[in-house]
Amino acid sequence: MALTFTPTRAAGLAAVQAFAPAMGRRYANGRNYDHGPGKHKAVSMLSPYVRRRLVTEQELVQVALAAHGPEGAEKFIEEVIWRGYFKGWLERRPQIWGSYRSGLQADLTALDRDRRLRRDVSRAMDGQTGLDCFDAWAAELVETGYLHNHARMWFASIWIFTLGLPWRLGADFFYRHLLDGDAASNTLGWRWAAGLHTRGKPYPARADNITTFTGGRFTPRPADLAEVDAGLEATEPDGLPSALPLRVYAVPDPSKPSVLLITDEDCRAEDFALSSLDLRGIATLAASHLRSPLGVAEAVQVFEDGALRDAAARVGGGAVQLCADAPDELAKWATAAGATQIVTPYITRGPLFDWLEEARPILAARGIVLTEWRRDWDSTIWPHATAGFFKVKLQIPRILETMVPA
């Protein structure tokens, strides 16, 4: 069942070109069908590359437009932009990420204390529930690091409503295993299934829908699945927090001695103005282990390591390899290089952002400032990510006109 994702930009670009003919009608008509591992032909499976920006969203959209035009590639482009919407939405409501992290810790504490809950969660993660479709998806996730998006929705719905398990433990299970695991997409996707993102509108896993969109691979009975009459919105009676302005961040100062920090948030540092810097050193920062207190799948760490090595090679090599453990190590490296400024592509809300926030005062004590570049793609989409996707969807023509000029 194993799938192979080579963690390099070259492999990502090759996969983009291979899928380009399918970015139009084939994607629009077939994207909801989950035919199983090795048969995901109507979806791109580019997410592990896009998540780390080994391939950028802008590049994907350019290829889709060139191959199919704006009408033919409409659905594919919408899905690419949806990722930016989720990223921006979490940037505007960082309280949701904080709530997820604290809630997960509470759920893990409950897991330690509750033998029955521990048994039920273990059976779900091990694919031992007796529900064929769910068990197959659990196995596919663990063995391949990938799941079709429709299967992710069904899985989350069954985990929450049929099995009655805490949604954050399911989100953590995904985050530990998905090669494309992303704080925004993963957290908000699970919240959406639970009826917390679009409040009061949970996603129901229905037997007929699963049968149809798996091509009959799975045929659960309606009685096998819970009827979903309401979501979990009662667990958050105060509703969604108000959207905040995008955070203020320091931009690189070309006059300061600098070091470049490459993370798997963005493995395309060469897109930025590196030549304008007084660059004293380069480092990669391994951080995938921060995703969960329970430990991350080896495949996730291997892919991250390969992506970081590839990214460093493209900006000249010779990078120091750091790990996001003790924040003081980051400060020691920058100081030893003679830098007063660390430069990195923008770090979005998630575990790495949290870790760097812990590092900031340690860096400041040594006279070092953490600075960031933010992509124009993000700066164009994120201001509109304040409510549902429709608000962003209305802006797609302007986004394309601005970011992908003819």
Overview of the molecule:
With about 400 residues, the protein is an alpha/beta fold. The protein folds into three domains: about 10-90 and about 380-405, Serine Threonine Protein Phosphatase 5, Tetratricopeptide repeat (Alpha Horseshoe); about 105-235, DNA Cyclobutane Dipyrimidine Photolyase, subunit A, domain 3 (Orthogonal Bundle); about 255-375, HUPs (Rossmann fold). It is about 50% helix and about 5% strand. The chain is built from 18 helices and five strands. The protein has helices at about 10-20, 25-30, 45-50, 55-70, 75-90, 95-115, 115-125, 130-145, 150-160, 165-175, 185-195, 205-215, 300-315, 325-335, 350-365, 375-380, 390-395, 395-405; strands spanning about 255-260, 280-285, 320-325, 340-345, 370-375. It has a five-stranded parallel β-sheet, with helices on both faces. Helix 13 (about 300-315) links the parallel strand 2 (about 280-285) and strand 3. Helix 4 crosses helix 5 (about 75-90) and helix 14 packs across helix 15. It is globular. The two termini are about 40 Å apart. The model has no long low-confidence stretch (mean pLDDT about 95).
Largest sheet: 5 strands, parallel
Within the largest sheet, what's the order of strands?
3-2-1-4-5
What level of helicity do the residues show? 40-55%
Output the radius of gyration. Answer: 21 Å
